[in-house]
Amino acid sequence: MATDSLKENRLFINGEFVPSFSGKKFDIINPTTEEVIASVHEADVGDVDRAVEAAKAAFPAWSALSAQARCDYLSKLADEIEKNEELFIHLEAVTMGMPPSGMKFVLATSKQYLKYFGSHAMDITGETSLNTPGYLNMSIRQPYGVCGGIIPWNAPLLMLITKIGPALAAGNTMVLKSSEKSPFASIVFASLCQRVGLPKGVLNILSGFGQPCGEAIAKHMDIRRISFTGSVATGRAIQKASSESNLKDVSLELGGKSPLLVFDDAPLEKAVMSATFSILYNSGQVCMASTRIYVQESIAPKFIEALKQAMAQMGVPGDPTLADTKRGPQVDKLQFSRVLSYLDHAKEQGFEIALGGNKARDKGYFVDATIVRNVPEDDKLIKEEIFGPVLVVNTFTGEEEVLTRANDTEFGLYSSVFTSDISRALRVAKALEAGAVGVNCTSPFMVVDLPMGGWKQSGAGGREFSKACLDTWTQLKSVFISL
Ligand code: NAD
């Protein structure tokens, strides 16, 4: 399977796989073996232009289809994912180090989300008003036309689905750039589009870097909306590119530094297992991972001991191609070195490292499951995204104090509280400054029928999932009818 699955490496434009104009390619390295396992065509500005042309040509017919017809295509794509699960599992293991246990969640949600967005295409409607005498007025929702999508590397298939699902359901066509670190899930998805006969040009998929490919999408004069998921720094660059080109609508899903509060009346085992899963899933490479734990002082020794045991057990790293592996490596050398630099910092500062703290293997980009304790609130371990299996655990005494500390961040993606007191749970859920709050549960728990997105610098310009998300892929028009 290894060689075959990595054979198709070209761009997907107008329903065909084509080489990049420049002929340039970039390498993909297996993070477990550190070996080059494939090379992929790199899109440049000319490739973006021809992809946009194809999407423009496809738009009139695609947007004129019935909602049911668009829904049928998305539903068939979900079925094709199901038929090709083993292939996706293999690809993500060898290109980004995600083990099969992690991919099960990605595959299940990807299929569910595609079907959800397809089935809700029919719910895209406007409003009517008889409030003005002599008039019947209405608002209608129409697709933008050509939209852009730019995705990160950490859950490639799911990220692709969250962009193309609602965009295509609403009648838009799309040019999507995958991440240069993990382009293969998108390439395989493109082949599924061919298999279900998705009309040519409706979805165009480019492999390439932020510059020039991503920037060209963000600046393109014929792209009217762009949805981006990735880091805050790139989100800023995309907003700037939009303002310097055609003021395209921008929605940004960005980073996080999620706090998890454990009160002394919390269901302790549940809190321990949830916190452990949250930081170890995909080796901590998850935007919403609970990275800052605040545990009430009276239960801190018991909680931390149980957490250490759970992290040590569930954090054993292994070969992500094997079925029983719990946790794989970091995605590449850059992320690996970045995570290790935070661990070096913790040591230099003399912070207590209660578990791990080092690279985990001689070969491959593996980092120990790590717990750092009692970190000052202004330290970079508290303020910055580490994107690794590194948990900071601090203690607190009272509710007001911990809320101030939990909210003292520019991020606001996901927060959690563990307590048995319903009044406190609701009070704290209301006070936490985040787009999502887990009560006695935490990330990556999310549901497709409720909006997902960040407060503060974790996001801007809309939400993903839910009916609210579908609406963001349409523009409103008011029509006034004189009677
Ligand atoms: P990144 O910002 O480095 O890259 C994301 C994408 O943007 C890639 O495809 C990249 O090629 C592209 N890009 C880079 N520079 C660009 C530019 N100037 N113009 C246009 N495109 C450009 O992020 P990453 O390292 O791939 O992903 C990790 C980040 O993503 C973390 O911060 C994480 O928290 C965030 N993330 C957020 C969510 C969410 O839903 N909020 C989900 C997953 C990941």
TrEMBL record:
Residues 19-479 form the Aldehyde dehydrogenase domain. It holds the Pfam family Aldedh. Coiled coil: none annotated. It catalyses: an aldehyde + NAD(+) + H2O = a carboxylate + NADH + 2 H(+). The lineage of its organism: Eukaryota, Fungi, Dikarya, Ascomycota, Pezizomycotina. It comes from the Eukaryota. It is an enzyme of class 1 (oxidoreductase). PROSITE patterns: ALDEHYDE_DEHYDR_CYS, ALDEHYDE_DEHYDR_GLU. SUPFAM superfamilies: ALDH-like. It comes from Penicillium egyptiacum. Gene3D superfamilies: Aldehyde Dehydrogenase, Chain A, domain 1, Aldehyde Dehydrogenase, Chain A, domain 2. This is aldehyde dehydrogenase (NAD(+)). Keywords: Oxidoreductase. Transmembrane segments: none annotated. GO terms for molecular function: aldehyde dehydrogenase (NAD+) activity. Belongs to the aldehyde dehydrogenase family.
